[in-house]
Amino acid sequence: MDRISEKIKELKKQYDLCKEIDMASISHEIEMLEKERSKYISFTVACDGIPPYYEGDEVSNCSTHKMGVCKIKYDNDEDVLHVWLKRPGLLIGRAGSNIKNVEEYIECKIQIHEVKNLWEWD
User: How far, in whole angstroms, is CA 41 from its chain's centroid?
Assistant: First the structure.
C-alpha cells in the first residue's frame, strides 16, 4: 500500500509541475500577444491619430488609407513590424524623416514590403 501511495504522490507532484509549466507558457503567450496588439495600435495611432481627434495627434504626415496599408504583422523575435503597403514612399517620407518618427513612436523597427498587386501580400 505504501508503494501505491508514494506513486500517487509522485504523480501529483508531476501534475502540479506540468500545471506550473503550462501557466508559465500561457502567460508568456499572452504577454507576446499583448505586445503585438500594442504595436498594431501604436502604428495606426501614429499614422491616423486618436479618434475622434484626428488633426494634430498623428506622428506621421499621412494616413494608413493614403499609404494603402494592406497588412501589418509584428515579429516578436526580431522586434520588427512588417508593413505591406501600396505607396511606401509616403511612409518613408522625405529623407526618411517620417519613418524615423513612426519608429520612435512605436519603439521598434519597421520593415516595408511594397505591394504591386493584391495577390502579392499573402
Answer: 9
Distances (CA, A) of 117 to 37, 70, 74, 86, 113: 27, 10, 22, 8, 12
The fold for domain 2-114 equals GMP Synthetase; Chain A, domain 3 (3.30.300)
Please return the burial class of 87, using the count of CB atoms within 10 Å of its CB with bins 0-12, 13-18 and 19+.
middle
Q: In this structure, what DSSP letter does residue 52 have?
A: T
Does the pTM of the predicted model rise above 0.85?
no
Position 34 scores a pLDDT of 82
Amino acid occupying residue 1: M
